[in-house]
Amino acid sequence: MDLVPSLGALVAGGLTVIMALIQGSTRLEINNLLFAAIVLGVYLGLQQLEASVLQPRIMGRSVDLPGIVIMVGIVVGASVAGILGAYLAVPVMATGRLVFLYVHSKMITPDGLEVGAEAAEPPPKEPPPPAVSGGAQQPGPEPEVDIPEGARKPAD
């Protein structure tokens, strides 16, 4: 139901309130209209909690941005470009973060030093393997191969 967020919330909330009006409460001794109003209030409260707290946190973790940055980005995107800006705010911020991290990493040399810093001595290389006497290398042990029972050749 969240394919179109506003429409999904409207349809789900409307169906919930209609069911509360028709069926009423079996545990509370109140009329159906008051029960429907309570259900609507709880539903709206949960929707606001999800939209204002949970979604920015989850989305922020998935794109590795803090929730407040997500919320501010959506508000700025909506004020600059309307609904399209609100929808594109998070992908644009995530892309901007990745571009910034890429440029920042390219400003650091492969040794991990900042540009202009003194280079340290390179790490020592591993010693070459010892040579085998006689000039030729001796073969190592044969690797074991699992052969199915039916595929083995009989011994002569």
Distance linking N and C termini: 73 Å
Name the overall outline.
flat
Mean pLDDT: 78
Which stretches are low in confidence, meaning pLDDT under 50 for 5 or more residues running?
none
Strand content: under 5%
Q: How would a crystallographer describe the biggest sheet? A: none
Query: Tally the helices: what do you get?
Result: 3
Q: Please compute the radius of gyration using only Cα atoms.
A: 33 Å
The SS-based structural class is: mainly alpha
Q: Secondary-structure element order, as H and E? A: HHH
Residue share in helix: 55-70%
Could you give the count of β-strands?
0
Provide an overview of this structure:
The protein is 58% helix and 0% strand. It is mainly α. Among the domains are: 1-52; 63-107, no CATH class. Helix 1 (5-23) packs antiparallel against helix 2 (32-62) and helix 2 (32-62) runs parallel beside helix 3 (67-106). The mean pLDDT is 78.
List keywords for this structure.
flat, mainly alpha, 3 helices, 156 residues
Condensed summary:
By secondary structure, this protein is mainly alpha-helical.
Helix-strand layout with pairing:
Layout (H helix, E strand, L loop, with lengths): L4 H19 L8 H31 L4 H40 L50
Helix pairs in contact: 1-2, 2-3
